[in-house]
Amino acid sequence: MEKIIIIKYGELSTKKDNINFFLSTLKDNIKNVINDDCDIKYDRGRMFLYNVLNYDKVLNKIKNVFGIHEINIGYKLDDNKLSTIENSLKGLIKDKDFKTFKVETKRSYKKYEMTSMEVSKYLGGVVLKNKENISVDVHNPEILINVEIRSDYAYIYFDKENGIGGYPVGSLGKGLLMLSGGIDSPVAGYLSMKRGVRIEAVYFESPPHTSVAAKNKVMSLARILTKYSNYIKLHIVNFTEIQESIYKNIPHKYLITIMRRMMYRISEKIAHKNNCKIIINGESIGQVASQTLTSISCINSVINMPVIRPVACLDKLEIIDLARNIDTYDTSILPYEDCCTIFVPEHPVINPSIEKCIEYEKLIDVDNLIENALKNVETIKIEEKENKFNDVL
SS3 for 6? Predict the structure, then answer.
């Protein structure tokens, strides 16, 4: 009998012809976070981690890997004989403390000598004979005894921990996250990764109007998100020249609208350069002036790349709850201003006109400003497993 970790796929099990691609991506993602702490095998139904050196460490790592529905500590038996299952179960329940239980059996090997129901009934009797003062509870048992029977062997497992579901990061391509220091954009990044998107991120800084502390805050948020993706490339754009030019030349109620249009243009170019298929941001409909439907449409019109807004239809309290769950909230609320919070006009336009935007943008040198900003982009690779930042450009 060998102690192992059993991983169940959940949503991945609905895939058909391309399931092997998703499963191999999941395997690679698990290997990346656990290094050489175990061996990994998989089939279309389960993934198995053998020769685990440190169970607590491995479990703590893989619980943040997207694509996993459920994690179980289990035991692989030498064969699938009923006597082997019975004797193994007797030994495994010996030191477990419970009052109620249920046995569930699954047979992928349909030629087995007994049905799943018959095996469960038989093993339930074994448990009752070998433990005192216990009873069967099929609805709400203290312990659920799972038995899986394969053609040459069987598994028994008890303990269960829920995974975070979704698709393996990288299985659906790459997107560029517009990462600010706020609450919403890290949550948007997390939700995108949950759908299999590997993210790179872009941050707009405006020194001396924004501080080094604000930049470090965004780097910390990116590092927190690497718990779910192993690494993130962060592109840092100096936005000072653009922001000052907008402030000096554009009617103030259009400051935010024009600023966001410039950010979108730059983000699209960085996305194309880095083979990102979409732009991702934390916009939530109606939350601020730049996030009314008219504003979103006006700002979005300057690019052709699809923009994904994972939190668009969530209210602020729902976004905050998610931020707390993924451990970004406490960092997001640190009081350091970013580009979106400085130079905010007293009465920003909430229903901007595309025609007026085009007219006002003639007052600044759009192409030259963007070209200058792209010349000096700083790119940093942030790696979770090393807990550090690496300059890559």
Answer: strand
pLDDT at residue number 386: 47
User: Contact, 306 vs 278, CB < 8 A?
Assistant: yes
For 112, the token pair is 């087995």
Q: What is the mean pLDDT of the chain?
A: 92
- What is the number of other CB atoms lying within 10 angstroms of the CB of residue 328? 23
Report the largest interatomic distance among the alpha carbons of the chain, rounded to a whole angstrom.
86
Q: Are 47 and 7 in contact (CB under 8 A)?
A: yes
CA 291 – CA 310 distance, rounded (Å): 14
When mean pLDDT is compared across 169-173, 265-269, 284-288, the lowest value belongs to 284-288
Residue matched to tokens 């040459």? 152
Q: How far apart are CA 189 and CA 178, in angstroms?
A: 9
What the block records as the tokens of 61 is 């790592």
Q: Three-state SS for 130?
A: helix
Domains identified in the chain and CATH numbers: 2-165 (3.30.2130.30), 174-391 (3.40.50.620)
Residue 304 has pLDDT above 90, yes or no: yes
Q: How far apart are CA 73 and CA 88, in angstroms?
A: 15
The structure tokens 């191999």 sit at 24
DSSP string of 18-73, one letter each residue? THHHHHHHHHHHHHHHHTTSSEEEE-SSEEEEES-S-HHHHHHHHTT-TTEEEEEE
Beta bridge mates, 378:
236
Nearest of 117, 91, 90, 94 to residue 104 by alpha carbon: 117
pTM: 0.91
